[in-house]
Amino acid sequence: MDHVNAVEPFDYVVFGATGDLTMRKLLPAFYYRMLAGQVPDDARIIGTARSALSRAEYQGRARDALGKFVKPADLHDAQVEKFLTMVNYVSLNGADPAGKWADLKAVIADGTEKARVFYFATAPDLYEAVARNLHEQKLITPKTRVVLEKPIGLDQESARKINDGVGQFLEENQIFRIDHYLGKETVQNIITLRFANPVLNAVWSSEYIDYVQITAAETVGVEGRAAYYDESGALRDMIQNHLLQVLSVTAMEQPASLEADVVRDAKVAVLKALRPIPQNDVKNHAVRAQYTAGTSGGQTVPGYLEELGKPSHTDTYAAVRAEIDTPRWKGVPFYIRSGKRMTKKTSEVVIAFKPAANGLFPGANKPGKLVIRIQPDEGVSLSIEAKNPTRDDMSLLDATLNADFLSTFNVRFPDSYERLLLDAVRGYPVLFIRRDEVEAAWSWVEPVLNAWAADQAPTETYAAGSWGPEAAKVLLAKSGHLWHEDMK
């Protein structure tokens, strides 16, 4: 089967369809896939929410969303009108068994043979109730899938409760836990870079690699979401899901095939091989911090506690030193960090190689590095040593080999949700999270969360617009390592 392009007719029902995620990401993603010819003409996108809107009113909101979040060059009046004919709306609280389920049934009554996807863009504590109502309303067919947005819980116990709750009514192969980082082309490209290029795969181990960094930095603060964010923090919001997924793709053994469960088995093996961090030693393996007032984008911005309006130890920055207990990665630390209000927006993987040890170039001990730029400026760069052309001896200069994917391929890089939305229709789960992945990630993160909750480690500070707290530099300096921005 052609997993990439084969899309059968479908009904896509979005719970929480008036929210920011639907307007900013989901509707534009469907539109772009329609432009690419991957949305059949008889596909239906049905928004549901508690708001009492008519279909025409919701289509108006959808039109506004496209106008705001689709590039102007891609907005074509005829295509927009075609897309809007696919969009319907039902006023329905999906968590309420007494809601207007008859109205939803009326819209999709003739679609029992179609692929039927229910997207849960609601609060995770409602997932079980929505799944129960779908079951009791007999809306689950053999070709039904549900897409669960993150976060899947706030800890191991709540994640299990959500998984058990939804799992009462749907089989595991019908549950698609979405992590949009896996939909990013450059994250998927990590697999290609390694296994399609023997020159890289040959050095992908502790024999040649000194350490690995995985970074997701944002320049924005929490803005109007401070109250919500204060319940999660950077470790929960970014590292437990997105960045551990990037780590598992970076570190996994070569799968026997690219079939979904074969790849996911390889990823789970990495997560289960993460060396546990003892709760009483978290302060030596992890750093948490909050941004204070500073300058971002040329503007003076307030600190986190000023935005929140109350005392808090919630981390707006988190860095963790991870080790993977496998022969390939023995002795190689993986440094994972994420933060808000940092110097620049970037998501990247940095592979720091060991310096040459052949003795041919005295004093030359600068290691090379491979940088995989996930976003923005998607691409790959490799730093190497070359002969200095201004000298007659064999002194060295740094050189960089750079592959800029945007200019190389001269195409629009699709948003991560585009592929993921239609993979759910296809029933192809390779880029979605399996239950054991969720639980393995929580198992590793929980000792850090517990230590922080018990104030067994300090809450550091960093100025808005900086690269984070000094303590994060110290975390690497213990092993003689540097964050990417400090490498010379």
Name its key features.
488 residues, alpha/beta, Rossmann fold, Dihydrodipicolinate Reductase, domain 2, 9-stranded mixed β-sheet, 7-stranded mixed β-sheet, 16 helices, 18 strands, 35% helix, 22% strand, globular
What order do the helices and strands come in, and which of them pair?
Elements lengths: L9 E6 L4 H16 L8 E6 L5 H15 L7 H9 L1 E5 L9 H8 L6 E6 L6 H10 L7 E5 L7 H12 L7 E4 L6 H11 L2 H4 L7 E9 L8 H4 L4 H18 L8 H14 L12 E7 L1 E3 L2 E3 L2 H5 L8 E7 L9 E7 L6 E8 L15 E7 L3 E9 L8 E9 H5 L6 H11 L5 E2 L1 H19 L5 E5 L6 H8 L11
Parallel strand pairs: 1-2, 1-4, 2-3, 4-5, 5-6, 7-12, 8-18
Antiparallel strand pairs: 6-17, 7-13, 8-11, 9-10, 11-12, 13-14, 14-15, 15-16
Provide structural commentary.
- Helix 1 crosses helix 14, helix 10 packs across helix 11 and helix 10 packs across helix 15.
- Strand 15 and strand 16 form a beta hairpin.
- The protein contains 16 helices and 18 strands.
- It is globular and about 80 Å long.
- It has 2 domains: 140 residues, 3-Layer(aba) Sandwich (Rossmann fold), CATH 3.40.50; 218 residues, 2-Layer Sandwich (Dihydrodipicolinate Reductase, domain 2), CATH 3.30.360.
- The protein is α/β, with parallel strands linked by helices and 488 residues long.
- The model has no long low-confidence stretch (mean pLDDT 90).
**Which fold name is given in CATH as the topology of the largest domain?**
Dihydrodipicolinate Reductase, domain 2
Instruction: Name the CATH class of the largest domain.
Output: Alpha Beta
Shape: globular
Can you tell me the number of structural domains?
2
Gyration radius (Cα, Å) is 24 Å
Q: Per DSSP, what share of the residues sits in E-state strands of 2 or more residues?
A: 15-25%
Widest beta sheet: strand line-up: 16-15-14-13-7-12-11-8-18
Which structural category do the helix and sheet elements fall into?
alpha/beta
Number of strands: 18
Low-confidence stretches: none
CATH H-tier superfamily of the largest domain = Dihydrodipicolinate Reductase, domain 2
